[in-house]
Amino acid sequence: MDQNSSSLAQSGAYTIDIGAAWSLKDFYELPHVFEQVYAFNCVFLLAEEARDQEKITHTFSSYPWRGGYSAVNFYKVLRSQVPIRLRPKVKSIQYASPGWIALGLLVPSAIAIGSGIDAFIKSAGGLNNLYTEIHRGLKERKLMQIDLKQKELELAQNQMDFAIKASEQLARGLGFENLNELNKQTGNPVASLKILLSYYRRIKILAEYVVKGKAKFPANDDDDLPRLN
């Protein structure tokens, strides 16, 4: 590991500001979804530190991606591959308006989440429309129920071209900068697309907390976000 990656792989402080009225469900959903997308980003930031790189590669290429079952297990395995010292830990929490959840974690991974949320909100519905178009395209090309873990699977050129273009559009819209690395892990453009769609759905959930005034996620190291009122 070089000096830059060693410096990167240090735990730091990240604070999610919270406001408005939270339900009991919120205290489960936000941390759960945040931890999933955090682990996803960590895979690309900590490639050299992965606990089991072979297992990660297998995880990206072994699920059929025909429903929610694949996503649940995919993120569960990714979480297990984040080094223990870099898994999000609650440093302090205050429920109030304003309030906060202070976490110890790999800050660049959390910043990537904040950036994705910002991009989603600033798109003014454009990403929602793109998601709908991609879903329609997957159905039209009979890619929704195809089993992507079949080693003998052969995709038609129009299916490949669609998946590659859609992944590029979605990654660009979310500010996701590791599409090439994702494609290397999956070895399949349709699998990459379906993983990105699952990532989008989770970013959307977190963005809804921001829109409703329930949370704010710093999107860069210099953010000095005011408490929510």
Short synopsis of the structure:
Helices cover 57% and strands 10% of the residues.
Describe the protein.
This protein has one domain. With 229 residues, the chain is α+β, with helices and mostly antiparallel strands. A four-stranded antiparallel beta sheet has the order 2-3-1-4. Strand 2 and strand 3 (99-106) form a beta hairpin. It has helices at residues 3-8, 24-45, 53-61, 68-80, 107-122, 126-140, 157-174, 179-186, 189-211, and strands spanning 11-18, 89-94, 99-106, 215-216. Helices cover 57% and strands 10% of the residues. Residues 1-7 and 224-229 have low confidence and may be disordered.
Helix/strand layout:
Elements: H1 3-8, E1 11-18, H2 24-45, H3 53-61, H4 68-80, E2 89-94, E3 99-106, H5 107-122, H6 126-140, H7 157-174, H8 179-186, H9 189-211, E4 215-216
Antiparallel strand pairs: 1-3, 1-4, 2-3
How far apart lie the N and C ends? Answer: 44 Å
- List the uncertain runs: 1-7, 224-229
Q: What's the β-strand tally?
A: 4
The averaged pLDDT comes out at 87
Overall domain count: 1
- Strand numbers in spatial order across the main sheet: 2-3-1-4
Q: How would a textbook summarize the main sheet?
A: 4 strands, antiparallel
Q: Rough shape?
A: globular
